[in-house]
Amino acid sequence: MLVRMPPTALIVHAHPEPGSFTTAQMREAEATLAAGGHQVKVLDLYALGWNATLDRADFPGSEGYFKPQAEQARALAAGTLPLDITGHLDALHQADLLVLSFPLWWFSVPAVLKGWVDRVFVMGSVFGGAYGIFDQGALTGRRAVLLLTTGGAAGHFGADQPYGDLDRHLFHIHHGMLGFVGYDVLRPIVTHAPARQTDEVRRAALSSVRQAFEKIEARDPVSDHGMTTSF
Ligand SMILES: Cc1cc2nc3c(=O)[nH]c(=O)nc-3n(C[C@H](O)[C@H](O)[C@H](O)COP(=O)(O)OP(=O)(O)OC[C@H]3O[C@@H](n4cnc5c(N)ncnc54)[C@H](O)[C@@H]3O)c2cc1C
Q: The domain 8-218 is classified under which CATH number: 3.90.226.10, 1.20.1250.20, 3.40.50.360, 3.40.50.1360?
């Protein structure tokens, strides 16, 4: 008899306040995915005290000119990557769906989450080496989605608005990080300006998050991702 394994979701969360709205919507996503049959793992980077700095300390014995990605590939082959990285890398490889949960900081992810990508998207494991990039990346066939909050109201974003186009701000994450290693990237799930809303509006936003994750299988991909790059 064929035993079908439940799909696996990995949520990587970056907010320093456990009582924040960003954390509440992450928990909503976690509960919804679990109720829908996913096996869900949450990596709460602030709670874990995640080291966000990729430097020589990750590679004891490294000498001379320091080339971070070459060191990553060497340590991967030698089995000497630090345990915090290998644990998260295993979780990444096991996940059918990756959710990055964060507040928009400087039109990007908080530094702790950028540092997670720096250290865990290891050359030779998720791209490069036996793999290529984009549709040759190791995570081809998996899906990823951003779950975020903003400070700016929805009306402040847009091509002709003061904050500019949110899709453009997220492009470096969608394409340069997630697409680069092979993910099919889904349209982001965004709550605008929760700090400036009433409790009632915030509750409705959590309900929208729940509905988005109930229908995550049917969510559209981002429009400008998916290009094939061969070189
Ligand atoms: C360094 C930095 C850079 C930034 N750069 C940008 C930027 O480039 N662009 C931009 O738009 N914004 C920016 N911001 C603002 C930031 O994006 C917002 O402050 C953040 O996204 C708001 O989300 P939060 O979870 O932190 O809100 P919070 O202030 O934590 O939450 C808002 C409210 O929701 C309440 N709440 C919590 N849980 C629940 C619940 N279950 N139900 C109902 N209410 C609840 C909280 O009590 C609080 O009153 C920046 C902020 C920082 C610190």
A: 3.40.50.360
